[in-house]
From TrEMBL:
UniProt keyword annotation of Membrane present: yes
Record-given protein name: Mechanosensitive ion channel family protein
Record keywords, A-Z: Membrane, Transmembrane, Transmembrane helix
Keyword Membrane tagged: yes
Species of the source: Saccharospirillum mangrovi
Entry's transmembrane regions: 20-40, 68-89, 101-123, 144-161, 167-183
Superkingdom, taxonomy of origin: Bacteria
């Protein structure tokens, strides 16, 4: 076609036929490029836009918010211009070399941007799946973007200086120590992200507690170099990603996934209020639905044991008797088993700890069946509200240090 055009220009005595032919070819390339641009952007991309718009919102947002198809179209246009320049422009023409050089740069840059858009699209899709939410994909994708950017930069430099990229790669090997120093944090973050992902140590949405960095809240984002945590006071803490590998942290995901949150709190009983139950107290406590069976069975067992030993019950130190604190412990055990917000398949225990100067600790150890913070605190408060209210029914008192009102009462009584 070049030869025919040149012959036609020579036949009509067109001045400077070489430059005129080149200009005609450039105009033809421009016209074809514009037509392809209209066909792709006003045709194919719009059709895909309308098809995905009628589909789920996630598809439409993921595919078009990141301009994936637009960048693909521009990349294809660059390839078309490069091919046209090779077909229609003279081989030894400076214009051809310039056009092909510019289109090579165009293709490499748009390929890089298309790859970025593709990774961002995958990241948007991953948010809709449980596996994607559990993996630190943002950090991994940022590492891939960094590696791709370095590769494309080397290829661009090799094109512009007209040297083989192998030479640049060999020189890059000599600068390994410098590169490791410059990209230390991204490299450590990439390795940490892979370890976090492989070992399922952390994911977006997990409750992370790391006192060393003042972090206590939900993980909002995991990037190549940092982990962003929104604390419960709505402040934001950023932690180096590699610190999650080198230091220890607490992930509360196991508690959330188990469906039970631990209640572990002790109330301290005044030791002077502990005594054997009297007949009057036993009669009153028998009316309690949760205690009636326990008391009847326990009294029968104690009576049989005392009769077998021939115990002289005229002295309180002889034989076995029911105590108010033991009966109270049995009541709490039965109460936990019937509580609608205590997890029935997890450990339930009421245990007595070692007494000290602050009384006799009686610890409640159980798990609520709600793991949300507000619900959990409400369940725990309701549980101990009932315990504090029912405590006097067993003749027990809470231990607490004397206050100003106690001292005033003592002074008043002493008068």
């Amino acid at each position: 076609m070049q030869q025919r055009l040149m012959a036609w220009l020579v036949d009509y005595d067109i001045p400077n036929p070489d430059w005129v032919a080149v200009m005609i070819m450039l105009g033809l390339i421009a016209v074809i490029s514009v037509l392809i641009h209209l066909l792709l952007h006003r045709g194919a991309v719009r059709v895909l836009h309308s098809l995905t718009k009628s589909n789920q919102h996630l598809w439409h947002t993921a595919l078009f918010e990141r301009s994936l198809f637009n960048r693909l179209a521009f990349t294809f246009q660059g390839v078309v211009i490069y091919v046209q320049a090779g077909l229609w422009l003279p081989e030894d023409s400076f214009v051809r070399q310039a056009v092909q050089l510019l289109t090579q740069v165009w293709i490499l840059v748009l390929t890089l941007l298309t790859f970025f858009a593709f990774l961002d699209t995958l990241l948007s899709f991953s948010k809709s799946s449980r596996l994607g939410r559990n993996l630190p994909l943002r950090g991994i994708f940022q590492g891939l973007k960094l590696a791709a950017a370095i590769l494309i930069t080397i290829l661009l430099i090799s094109i512009l200086i007209g040297k083989s990229p192998v030479i640049l790669f060999s020189g890059l090997g000599a600068m390994t120590a410098v590169l490791l120093l410059v990209f230390k944090d991204p490299i450590l973050g990439l390795v940490a992200g892979i370890q976090l992902s492989a070992n399922k140590m952390l994911a977006v949405g997990d409750w992370l507690e790391m006192p060393k960095y003042g972090a206590d809240g939900d993980v909002q984002d995991i990037t190549l170099t940092t982990v962003k945590v929104r604390n419960w006071d709505n402040t934001i803490t950023t932690i180096p990603t590699y610190a999650l590998i080198s230091d220890s942290f607490k992930n509360w995901r196991g508690m959330t996934d188990s469906g039970g949150r631990r209640i572990k709190r002790a109330l301290r009983i005044d030791g002077t209020s502990v005594h054997f139950l009297t007949d009057e107290e036993l009669t009153r406590l028998r009316k309690a639905k949760l205690l009636s069976t326990y008391i009847e069975q326990k009294i029968a067992d104690i009576a049989a044991d005392n009769a077998a030993q021939g115990a002289d019950l005229s002295s309180p130190v002889n034989g076995r008797r029911l105590t108010n604190i033991g009966t109270f412990r049995a009541y709490l055990t039965a109460y936990l088993k019937t509580h609608q917000h205590i997890h029935p398949e997890m450990t339930q225990m009421v245990r007595q700890l070692e007494p000290d100067t602050n009384g006799i600790p009686l610890e409640i150890y159980a798990f609520s069946n709600k793991t949300g913070w507000v619900e959990y605190e409400g369940i725990q408060a309701d549980l101990f509200d009932h315990i504090f209210a029912v405590l006097p029914e067993f003749g027990l008192r809470l231990h607490q240090s004397p206050t100003g009102s106690d001292f005033q009462a003592w002074v008043k009584d002493s008068r």
